[in-house]
What we know:
Elements: H1 2-8, H2 47-56, H3 83-86, E1 89-94, E2 97-102, H4 103-155, H5 164-173, H6 175-228, H7 237-253, H8 257-261, H9 266-293, H10 310-328, H11 331-340
Antiparallel strand pairs: 1-2
Amino acid sequence: MADDFDSLVAGLLSTPTDKGASPPKDTTGDPPKDDGPPAATDTTPDASDASQDGADNSDEPARQPDTSDADGGEDQGDGGTDTADTEPLYTVKIDGKDTTVKLSEALAGYTRQADYTRKTQELAAQRAAQEAEAAATREARGRYETILGELERQLGPVNGERTEAQWNELRATKPAEYAQEYTDFLRRQEQRAAIKREQDRIGQQKQAEQVQTLRNYVASQRTVLEKDMPEFFDTVKGPKLKEGIRKLGIENYGFTEQELDRTYDARVLKMARDALNWHNHVAAQKAAKAKLADAPAINREPGAKQIATPKTKKAAADQAAMKRLEKSGSIEDAMSLILKK
């Protein structure tokens, strides 16, 4: 089954050309059902309705537009004020900060929030209904599989049937018995074939659901990576990061190419990214220490402080031991200088 998944679902470390097609972004769960095209809705006005309306309203006088408020009518005197200027203000928290908004703006925001909440609740209810329906389908399918298995058991094993030579012998010795038993044998063969077709069909359904579930999981993990590790999808940094993770996994941890192609968990890739960064950091430190150890001593002006390196420290210690030997002339100082060499 893992090989089938590899051929249908690309891992997070794989490029779209590595293993099958790139998984879709859709994470809606079970694959959509094809219920056929939606029924067409006729929104063209009915001519008979239009004519009827015209007949009903023929005796009514034509409505004239209300122009009492136009051009500064009686309701707007010289001292009238704009309602926008007198609209009350309210202080609300937006992203943790106090913000002053107008009443109309607050009501509009509340309406949008209420609409968003309603749609979210509707989607959650639809998702719950789909999951319940899928669970009921799986349960019914499980019972059906049990029934098929029981029928197959009652038919008996295929290797328990007569061989061709035994059928020929029965036909020659007992023709009447042969006719009846061979008819029953053909019936059992047809039943076995029908059961096998149903078992294969159910197996294909289950595999398709498993592949779709894995596709949805990979898509969700891609969403996590886009948020937590955006460099993974960068056109410049992404390929280098993937190659570094693959190389580290193979050379340092013993992973195979096939195992890395089956990397679907975003947590594993984030941990691998951190391991790669630490590995590069340690390698850079070792390279810097090696370069510093091989660096020549820097000649400075008299009295200036020199940078201490392992070589300069050893040279200074040897020089101090030699001065002690010249001053004392003792065997102990000479042996100490020889042992340091």
